[in-house]
Amino acid sequence: MYLSNIKEAQSIVLNGPGILNARKQSLVGPEQGWDGWVMRQFTLGKDGQTPKHSHPWPHINYIISGKGTLFLDGKEQSVESGSVAYIPGGEEHQFRNVGDEEFAFICIVPEEGDK
To answer: Could you tell me the residue range of the domain that residue 74 belongs to?
Structure first.
């Protein structure tokens, strides 16, 4: 069993090509007993974004707060608090914050996707 609070999770500022104003917190994974999977929270500040990218593993997303866009299937689609998305492996995708407040989402990936 594992119980914690997001306030206790280390927040890592992400840097790299195409990344703007983004942080990641690893919440539950193999270290907490969930073998093979990892649940993370990404937070994008004002004008923040992830890079347009693809990878072989799928992931599941749940938007916690804010307003943003998800680039998927070659087009940008609006997402907001309560939106959910499944992104198959190999699909190019990108999240962007289009609001004035932080845009935060949960991202669940196989363990290989969090290396």
So the answer is: 10-40+48-100
pTM above 0.85, yes or no: yes
CATH code of 35's domain: 2.60.120.10
Could you read off the pLDDT tens digit of each residue along the chain, which spans 115 residues?
Answer: 999 999 999 999 999 999 999 999 999 999 999 999 999 999 999 999 999 999 999 999 999 999 999 999 999 999 999 999 999 999 999 999 999 999 999 999 999 999 8
Does 4 fall in a domain?
no
**Pairing mode, if any, of strands 93-97 and 20-28?**
unpaired
* Domains held by the chain: number: 1
- Rounded Cα gap, residues 14 and 46, in angstroms: 15
Shortest CA distance to 52 belongs to which of 80, 73, 38, 23? 73
